[in-house]
Structures are given as structure tokens and as C-alpha cells.
Specification:
homotetramer, 409 residues, Jelly Rolls, seven-stranded mixed sheet, six-stranded mixed sheet, FormamaseFmdA (chains A, B, C, D), EC 3.5.1.49 (chains A, B, C, D), formamidase activity (chains A, B, C, D), FmdA_AmdA (chains A, B, C, D), Formamidase (chains A, B, C, D)
């Protein structure tokens, strides 16, 4: 039986678990140690540490304190790993905790984090997804059911002091360009809600004061939210500190490219079974700055797609220059508009694009002035025929079911 | 035998062929007419009309006149198609012209169009690709060979006057923000090199004066450069004018997501066998603004990938806000750096990313302040093992072969 | 948390567990009951009930008592299911028991069951496979590692008395054509080792006397050993008795088409999470005699194959008439011969073909007098390059490791 | 432009074309010569040399003279190829002749060749398939349309005298076991209709007298009818004579595993673009008896299947011993019965199973006494939903269209 090196009791508050942390800092003490070649299991909280409930009330999404996230399991020290090495992590398997066979998707209030389409969906909403073995469906979004492309939204190694400084400095410089923006441009260190694992006293205070927030992906990987980093994949991480310090969390049962809904994919508490190896000096050998990875040989196959194009012109007809973000936003809006013709609400469509194994491709990025992005909607996840035909669409949903909403107070 | 409605003689200059045009305008006369249900073949020039030669000299890429592109075959009038309809186009097959079994890829000089990585590769370079049936390889980039994901870079219907005006106005407004930028932000109508098909006299002059340039993708589709719009796919185009006016060109033997090299994919002259149907009133029925499409059931399968991450921090460590373009640029640069370890030059790596069936995914777009993009490099296109290992990379190439370069005069 | 309706303690002998049985008979009492729409978990023994050990001694394979197999979990009664219905079973997930993360493959002695190539490998041998999350590898067959295509070798519903009689009669008629054959043509009921679940006394004796053996697949499904009946698939079973009486067992971590090694695939103890529905009168509605099924959307993807042909001419050059069995046997032998060139022993090659996700296709079956069968060997399961090249094969294995063998006493 | 080394004029009788032959014999003169590394095109007749017409009358299928088939293009001599080498043939592309964009499928009369289900469909019938680029559909079998998995049914090298003798001897020995069987067990040499290419006079007579018939697949490959030997695949053929002598013909636009209808797949006239290389001494290096091959990276993807099981018990309830042929026959009949529920005639179902990209798997071959075979029917080739549901099947076809039939005279 494989050893579970980090255990999570969902009834215990995440900040009280000493093998959990929510900031990036080189001084966070290792939660445990392993050797190259070892395989082991880490349990994880959901990214919010249990703030979102399996109910029909979105006020928890509205009121979430984003300074507390993400609750990560680790850091795991790997004997012999040194700065400049590559830590090879194979995700042998990932699953939900047996006492928590559900997940949540939602979008934050525009005043508290927002999401990719926050200008169109400014209020907090959520959908709950039940897991049936390898499949999921939602009581808030009828007519879809699909297999999970299970993955950690967040995984990476501890930064060294130099890298940490670079992060904090460049992000503060960005914040300084518009410090009052809502939502903010970035989040600086914030001591009050920092959880530094086993650290206590002045060490804890130092980590809390300096520790980088966990939301952005960075050179070490971190919160990449790459749906294809799924169980069965193999990742090559840069190592910056002795022992590497691998942490993981923010498990997703499924997600669409972009994680456009931000809160988030289909978020869940669970466990990761992984194996580690080390490539000595691998960063220089392969010219590695950011992690690279090999995808899994075992992922859900949904090969029938309906593909939506978007270009970098906004809703007011204003022309942007090769802006892939805008192009993808337009592709998303085009897909939502299409889904409405079959009876979905806009919010349901938006949530679905954030949850299902949707692909987002950078299709054209040089044809001035318009970028072109495409959103690939898998048609086999629907329990009815979503394809266009000469007869026109049939409304399969009567609108009686919608996603819970919680307006700002 | 299927009728070839538009023929192309590669020895005849494209501007002399009356079934070819290089601007978008509602008044361009139909080159031919078909009925719904018809299938037919259109031959095409390469996008430059033959400006680039199958040789080892990149000066043709350096000196290309971008005001002349793209040379399109059409417009094809479809009887009964009216504004508001959807024109359903099935790409039954696509191929190279038998007397031109090769294609080109390259990047323009930064002073004449540039490319996605023009700051890193500012000079004109090209690679020539030979076709062997369904496969291609290049004498300028050894060690790779792959099956073509053949597709038209450009396909769409004629705009109506209102849409045309909107295009010209919004693009001019963008140009006006920085009219002297090199490369330019967008290209306004340019009469001197306009080719309006069968139009002559004042009609030709009107089209030349007003006709939108063909480089950007727009609401009608156009130059989307979507590699997955491949033979076997079915596209649903908005119709704006009576008869629809479908044009096609810019055939690619293969391309990576983004067409990052701009000049371009693996560009070729060829033919398209297509079939058309009409969905009456389809734009309103399905809420269509941009084209949607179903991908082909028959595409090359390269399922083993090595995936590179990029985040929206530039080479100087400057932090951008959720900028997918920058994140994808960084992912591309990371991949090129990796390829260098196996012996490729930077230019060869860049050209390869623009030519091979590389995927570009918008992986994370909400984790402030960093967007995350991933570049998926198929490993089976290489004739050697490109995967990372504990032993480190082997240099398979000795650097004796490189891509032709032509410095600015 | 999903209910586990049948529990298995691997330390308890299978014949003592009242929710287990090893014969097919309409009178076996239901082990438990569920309703249409329910999902639930059944734990299972390995098919031999623990007779094969995780060690390096093949005497257990040699000495196995085949009259005791297969130990099945069930029957599960489904409320409302009646003869003529279809029982729809969705395999929501399948896994190994956490205290038994390994499996076995082997071939029986020719004198005790044999296997598909028993004339070439007449002695008992085995290989042990360790599970690492979704992957497996064997200390007895170096150089391969692959993801599991996990599935039950055996699943089906109870027969009614008429069907049971037909089975016993037709199989006895076959036996009677050559009653002393080694291995036998079929196995008749055998009371001594019958396990009838909860039944006792005269009922148990009746079941033991009449109960059909579990080895062959039959109209109800049963021991089909279809590797693609994997987790995520949905099966439509004929119902013959009130309550259907669904039983399952003989879990495989992986198997090649044909299960040519007989003992067997990669055999394991584990659990099945399933969900049941009923289609009333479905047998007549769809003309169903044998089960039909939809494969899973989530299976390991090994798309690179090396394919071996075989024709129906035996090793002595004798011509058979359109004999697919012989053709597949020849294809297997051809593959084994090829594998030997890379250093594998014949037994290792044989075991690998029975264990890995090998495909066996009926390629041509009308071209008199030769059938043609093909064996598809996935090349990505090997840790080295198994493809042919002008340079010839490299011996990656030195022969120091082989599979345990136990000669007949 | 690639050289076309063998040209076929469909208006010229195949026996008059000196680069065509219809027997296997070492003395057939090479039709042309190439060098290793060359790529070239060979045109081909359909396998019957034009005997079957694009009309609605099946009498041509009934009356076909099977002693005339197959008309093959070649042999192509490869300089330097010697006995014991492997000839590596890459199928760069394959297509239909532009003046013959259609194909035929059918089953022979039981009295003239029959087919896999000839006891159920004893009369000659045919269906005609029209090609639309990469797709095909039939006016005789409504409701299906699919992309072609184009391949040669027959390809291989000339035998040497020893191998030829072995073929003729073993096949005659089989015939001798039941010389009057209808259909026959095998076909011996038959001089009257032999076509020996360029050979004339006594050489021609020798070849005609001794030449092996082309119907069966044999050690050299030959008429394997492997649907996956499609364009893009790479085949490694044993070489028996100096120059190898590669011949090809019997092109199929599409075929199901087994080619169960015998007449045949979707048969067509066309062309093959191929490239040859030689592996010196490759037969011994790799232990090759029959050809091996690598499948194409570019094949139609139909991943949604409905799978039918069959076991080796015949319609009368008689038990056979591990008979895969019978099991596959039963799986085919099960599928046909299912298709009837949607309105197809039995003949249409049978023809569809022979024409569409159906898979036939050897699923279980050791579970005495029943073999289990599975037939994989791709559901996306249907224009309506063919899946089972609680509502039962809908009859999409009204039976007004059926396949032409020609009863024996």
C-alpha cells in the first residue's frame, strides 16, 4: 500500500494543518521528505479550504476571502535535489476524497475577483457538480455529463530568495500602475491570512510578510491551471532550493482551457499519487526556464467538436491589435450565444465553458490587426444533439433550472 | 469528373486572371455560379501569387510587396443564398497542384511585416518544403517529416457595404493611434495593387479604393489561418450579400497554431474541392456572428507531445497583465531554446513552430497577473528522440545546414 | 460516499463469502438488491480466489484447480427487471484493492488448461505486475511499462433454466466428441467445488449439480474477456430472470485481445463502481441475442503500432481453410519471433502479448483458403525503440531476467 | 511532378495492358524498374478489370469470372533488392481515378464464390458508392456517409520457385480433401485466363500453367485485405527474387475488417503513389516471415462505436470449439439484426459491414469452448442516431430503397 505522506481532514480548518501552506517562500519548512524513485500520496483541500458548500446558495462564492487561497499540500523535500536540477514528477493517479464526491464551479463578483467575462456576468454564481466514478454532472446545468480530465490546477517547487524578490517586485510595479483597480491588477504579499506550514514565530512572520501569493502561474509552474496536466502526465520542474520543495493543490475534476470562470474549474478536495525523479543539472542541459511536460496517455476522448471563432474586435466594434485575450473572449461569447438557442441561460453556458473539457486555441496571431482564437466545444458531452442543422435548434431546456446567484451586498 | 470552375495557370500572373481577386468588396463580380448541393473544384495561387521561389535565396521574402496579397479564387455565387443565411461549406478535399509539389515558410523582415517573434528574428528568412504524397520535409530543416494537415488559410464570403465600412473605419481608427509604426498596426485600402476580378473601369476603381485588405480575419471568417479548418471539415459562414460570394485561397500544406511565422505556414498553390448548402435564416436561428465549424474526421494523428509553458512576463522581467500573446511568445521562445539543444538554429526552430502541426492553447487566463499559454510540440514528427532524459540531449544536427537569410538592403 | 454492497476480505477464503459464487444457475440467491438508477460498489477476488501469489515461483500456476474458478461477486438483484428487458450497466470506475496493488499473468501447463500457444509453451509460467497508480510494470519482463485498460473479464446476468439447459447440453455434446482430450474441449458441471453463494442444503446441491461452469462466454456475456469493456463503458445485457442477477469478477488491469495466455490477462482483486438502468422489453426492441456495449471515452491512447500479419498455414506448411484462430496464432508467433531479436525470451514475448493493450484484428476472412489476422503491438509501451530500421535491431535485454517456470511433476 | 510508371486506360481491356498481371510467378517480367529512394505512381484497374458496372443491375456480380482476378499493376523491379532483404514500401498517397469516382460492393452468388455470410445471403447483390472527395455514400444504402480509409487490398512481391511450389502444393492438398465443394476450398492454377504481363510464348505458357492464383493472402502479403494498410502506412515486405518484383492492385476506398462481403470492400480503379527502400538482410535481422507494417498517421477518426459480441455457437445451437470465424459470423449477424430495427434490409446491413470502417476484434480465444469476437460499428457514419435508448429504435428508412439482386440463372 502506498504511503500517504500528507493527510487532510476536511473537518479540520486548513490553517491548522501544518503540512499545508498558502504562500510561496523559500523558508517554508518541508512538510515531509522523500527520495528519488519514491511514489507517495498527498491529500489536498479544495483550493479555498472548504469555503464553498454543496448547496444552492451562492453567497459563499460572493463572500470568499481570496487572500486565504490556495491551500497547498507540501512542500515535499526530495533528497539530493539541488538548484539547477529538474524535478521529474509523474502524476500516477488523482482522485476525489471518498467523503467529498462533488465539486464546484462559479464566477466571483466583479468586486471580488471577477472572471474572464466579468463585464458580462458581474455577480457571484455557482454550480455544483456530482461525481459518479469517472463522470460528473450538475443539478444546476442539465443536459451535460462527461468524464473528468482530472488534474491539479497548481503544482510547483519553492522559489529561491532571488526569484521570490523578482516576483514581488515585478508584480508590485504592475499594481503601482493602477493601484485602485477593481479587480486588482495583482495581489501583493498579505501577512494576515498567510499560512506557513510548520513555521512559527519570527520565521512564520517573515514568510507571511514576504511570501508570494499563489494565484498567478510563474516560472516554477504554480497555478498554471493547465487542464492537460492530468493524471498520467509527467512534468519537469525547475529546482531552485535544496530539496526542491514540491507543493500541490487546487485539484480540478475537469476544466476548460483558460479556466475562464476563475472560481474555478470543477474544484474539489482529493489526493494525488505521484512519483519523483531528478535530472541533475537539467535546467541548463535542456535550456529550461518554465516547466515542460508530457501529457497523459489516458485522457477522456471527446473528438467531435463544434468550433467557435473569435477575433480581436470588441462588442462596441472597437479594433484591438492582435489581442488574443479579446479574441478568445469573443469566441466564448459566441459559444454562449449559441448555447442559449438550445435553452441554456448565459450563466449556464459560461459555467459550462469553464468546467467541461473545452479547448481554447491560439489560431492566428500575426494577421494584423486581428488575432483569431477558437473555442472547441465537445459535442458528445451533451445528452442531446447540439449540432447545427437546416431545421434550426430545438430548445431542450425550459429555463426552469438555473444557477444560484448572490448579488453584492 | 467534378467540374473545375476556376482554373489557375501558375505561369500567368495572378492579376491577369479574372477569377482571382485580392480585396474584399460587395461589388466584386461573381467569378462563377453554383447551386446548393453542388460540389466543384477551385484552383488557387499561393497567397503571394508566385512571388516566392523554390530556391535557396531569401531575398524574395525580403522584397515581397504585401499590398498585393492575398490572391483569392472567387467569388463563387450560390443561387438562392441571401443575407442572414448560413452558407455551409464542406471541404471535400484539398491538394497541391501537380506541377508545384512544394511550399514555403518564412519570416518577413521587421521592416516589411515582421512576424510573431520579429524582435528576435528581424531578418527575412525562408525554408522550402517538398511534398511526398501526404508528407512533407524540408532541405533547410533536417530531421523532421510529417503528414500535412492541409487547409485554406483564407476562406469567407463577401461583406455587405455596411460591414465593409465598419471594417475600414475601425481599422483606420487603430492606425491613427500610431500611423508611423513599423510594422504597421493595420493596412488601409490601397488602390494601386488592387485586383477586382472581372471588374473593370469605374467599378474596378471603386473596389480598389474601398476594398478591405485581406490580411486580417474578420466576422466573415477570411484570413483566420485556423490549421484545423482542414480538408474534411464543414464550415458555417454568415452570408451578407445575395449569392454569398465565397472566395478561398492561401492554401497551407501544414501550419502550427498561430501561424507565428506569418510568411506563413507551408504556403502552396493548389486546389479545393468543396460542396455548398444553405441554411435559410441560419444567422438568427443559431445566433451566429463569426463562422463556426466542425473539424474533419480525417486529420494526421500525432498524439505524443512535449508541452512548453509560457507566462506573461517578458524577457526583461517586466510583468504584463493576463497577456496571452506574451505568454504564447514566451512558450514559443522556450520551445526554440529547447530545440537548440538538439542542434537546430533558432531560425530553424522558429520556422518549425510555424510549419508543423503544433498546438497553441490558452491554458490559463484569469490568474492575475499572469496568463499561461502552452505550446504543444508533436514529438513523432522528429526522426530522432526529442524527449528529455537523465542523460541529457544529443546534438543530432551539426549546424552545417541552415535557412537562407536576406538582410535588409 | 457510495455504498459498497459486496465486500471482500482477501484473507477470507472465497468459498466462505456468501456474496460470492462460482457457477451460473437461476436459483443462486441474490446477494443484494438495488433499484434502477442506483450506483454502488462491488468488491471482487481475483478470478482464482487468491491461488496465485506475488512471488517468483510458478508452481501455484501449475497446480491451480480450474474447477474452482471464477469467483464472482453477486448476483445483484435489480428491482423491476424482468425477462426480455435489457439491463444497462455503466462501469463508472474500476480499481485494484488498496492492499493488493499487483496482478499476475501466466500460462497453464498443457496438462492443466494450457493456453493459445500451449504447443509452443507447454509448461506453467508466470509474470508478476506491480501497479503504480494507473501504470504497471513487471519485474519479470523488463523494458515495458503502460497504463492499464482496466476491465472485468467476466460480467453478466443469471440464465433461466431453459438457457442453462441449452448450455449444458450443447457443451456436453462437444465433450462427447472427444472426452479424453487434453486439454478438454469443455467443462461440464462439477459439484465438488461449486460455490452457490447464500444457498445451502438441497438448493446448494441442486445448483452444484446443474450450475454451468464460468469459463466460456455465452449469450448472457459472462467470461467474454473483452479488453474494451473497460471502466467508463456502458453495457446492455439480456435479462433472463426476475431481478436480472448481475454478477461480476475476474478483473483485469490490462489484457491483449484474445487473452491468449489464459492465466490470464493481468489478473487482480479489486472493486467495480457501477450504475444500473433497465430498458423494458429491450431484447425484442433491438433484436438482442448477445450483449452490446458502448466503449469508454477514457481509455489509454497508444496510437503507434507495429502490426504483424498471420495467415492460416501452420508451422508445417499445412494449409487450413479460412481459419482465423490459426492465422492469429501465426501472427502471435511472428510477433514473438520479432521480440526475441531485441532480447526477450519467447515466454516473455508470449506473456507480453497477453498482458499489454495489444489489438487482434480479423483482417481478411473470405480470401480462400487463407484467413488473415493482424496483431497490433503498441510501440510506446516499450522503454526503447522497437521499430525496424536499416541498422537492424539492438538487443536491449541480456537475458539475465526471465519468467519463473514450473515443470509438470 | 512524380513519374507515373504504369498507366491504366479503363477503356482498354486489362489483359491487353502489358504492365498488368493476374498470377504470382517468379518469371513474370518486370514491368518497370526503380531505385531505392525513388517515389513513383502506379495506376490500377479495379480488381475485376472493369467487370462490374455503375448501374442498378447485379447480374454482373452474379456472372463474374473469378478466374480472371486480380488485375495487378507491376511487377516493379527495385535495383539491388535481393532475396532475404526487406522491401520497405511507403504508401505516400492513394486515390481514385478522376474519370471513375465511384466504387462497388457486393456479395457473390453462393454458387460462384459466395461470401462470409453466403448461407444467409446466397444470391448476388451489389451496392454502388459515389465518392465526394474524401467521402463516400451509396444510393443503395441511404443514411450513411463516411470518409474513406483508402488502401490496396493486394500488395506484395513475387515468390521464388520454391515458395510458389509450396503454395500450389499445400493448396492442392486442401482442395483434394473435398474437390467438389461449392464454393471451392481453394483455387489451383488455371491457364486459360492467366495474364503474365509482358511474357509471351512459352514463358507465358509456363507462368499460366504454374502461376499461383491471387485470391489468398500468403507469406509475401498479397491479398491481405487489411483495411489499415492505408495511405500513409509503411510496409516491410520479404524479398524472394532479385529486384523484389512489387505488384499492387485491388484498391479499396473503404472496407470493414474481414472484407466479409468478398465482392468486396468498396472496390475502385485508381492510383498509388509509393516510395521504396531496402533493408539488406532484413528478413533474418528481424525474424520476418510475413510482412509487418506501421499504420498511417492520417486515417479517418470514428471513435464512437456500438460493439456487438458473438460466440462460437451456431444458429442451431451447436457448440463449436474456440472457433473465431463462427464467433465473428455471429457478431455480424447480431449487428445486421440490430440494423434491421432501424429500417435497413439484411442485405444493406451486410453490405455496410463490408464497406464501412468496421473493426473486427478477436476478443477472447482461450475460454473453452467459446471464442468471443466483437464487431465495432462506428456510430458517427450514420446520419441519424443509431444508439440504443429506453424509447426503442426509430425506423429511419421506409424500405423503399434496396440493393439490386440477381438470382442465379
Amino acid at each position: 500500500m502506498t504511503d500517504t505522506l500528507i493527510k487532510v481532514d476536511l473537518n479540520q480548518p486548513a490553517p491548522e494543518n501544518e503540512q499545508i501552506h498558502n504562500r510561496w517562500h523559500p523558508d517554508i519548512p518541508m512538510a515531509c521528505w522523500v527520495k528519488p524513485g519514491d511514489d507517495f500520496i498527498l491529500e489536498t483541500y479544495d483550493w479555498t479550504g472548504g469555503a464553498i458548500k454543496n448547496d444552492d446558495d451562492a453567497s459563499d462564492v460572493r463572500d470568499v476571502d481570496l487572500s486565504t487561497v490556495h491551500y497547498l499540500s507540501g512542500p515535499v523535500g526530495v533528497q539530493g535535489a539541488e538548484p539547477g536540477d529538474l524535478l521529474v514528477v509523474e502524476l500516477l493517479d488523482i482522485g476525489a476524497k471518498q467523503d467529498s464526491l462533488w465539486g464546484f464551479n462559479g464566477f466571483f463578483s466583479k468586486n471580488n475577483g471577477g472572471g474572464f467575462l466579468t463585464d458580462y456576468f458581474p455577480d457571484a454564481q455557482k454550480s455544483i457538480w456530482d461525481f459518479e466514478g469517472m463522470f460528473t454532472k450538475s443539478r444546476h446545468i442539465p443536459g451535460v455529463r462527461f468524464a473528468g480530465l482530472i488534474h491539479p490546477g497548481l503544482i510547483g517547487c519553492l522559489p529561491d530568495p532571488k526569484l521570490l524578490s523578482a516576483w514581488n517586485e515585478r508584480e508590485q510595479a504592475l499594481i503601482d500602475t493602477n493601484p485602485t483597480r477593481v479587480p486588482p491588477l495583482a495581489n501583493p504579499p498579505f501577512a494576515a491570512t498567510a499560512h506557513a506550514g510548520k513555521a512559527s514565530g519570527t520565521l512564520r512572520d517573515k514568510i507571511a510578510a514576504e511570501g508570494a501569493r499563489t494565484v498567478p502561474p510563474r516560472e516554477h509552474g504554480g497555478n498554471c491551471d493547465i487542464k492537460d496536466l492530468s493524471r498520467g502526465s509527467k512534468i519537469f520542474f525547475p529546482v531552485y532550493v535544496d530539496g526542491a520543495g514540491l507543493s500541490v493543490g487546487d485539484l480540478h475534476f475537469s476544466q476548460g482551457d483558460g479556466e475562464i470562470t476563475f472560481c474555478g474549474a470543477i474544484e474539489m478536495a482529493g489526493w494525488v499519487h505521484m512519483k519523483v525523479e531528478v535530472i541533475k543539472g537539467g535546467m541548463a542541459k535542456y535550456g529550461i526556464k518554465n516547466p515542460i511536460f508530457k501529457p497523459s496517455p489516458i485522457v477522456p476522448t471527446y473528438n467531435n467538436y463544434l468550433i467557435f471563432e473569435g477575433i480581436s474586435v470588441d462588442d462596441n466594434g472597437k479594433q484591438a491589435y492582435l489581442d488574443v485575450n479579446l479574441a478568445y473572449q469573443q469566441a466564448c461569447l459566441n459559444a454562449i450565444e449559441y448555447l442559449k438557442k438550445f435553452g441554456y441561460s448565459g450563466a449556464q453556458g459560461y459555467s459550462l465553458l469553464g468546467s467541461a473539457p473545452v479547448q481554447g486555441h491560439i489560431s492566428g496571431v500575426v494577421d494584423i490587426p486581428n488575432a483569431c482564437a477558437t473555442l472547441w466545444l465537445p459535442t458528445d458531452i451533451f445528452e442531446f444533439d447540439i449540432n447545427p442543422s437546416a431545421a434550426g435548434p430545438t430548445r431542450f431546456l425550459d429555463g426552469s433550472i438555473n444557477m444560484p446567484i448572490a448579488y453584492d451586498k
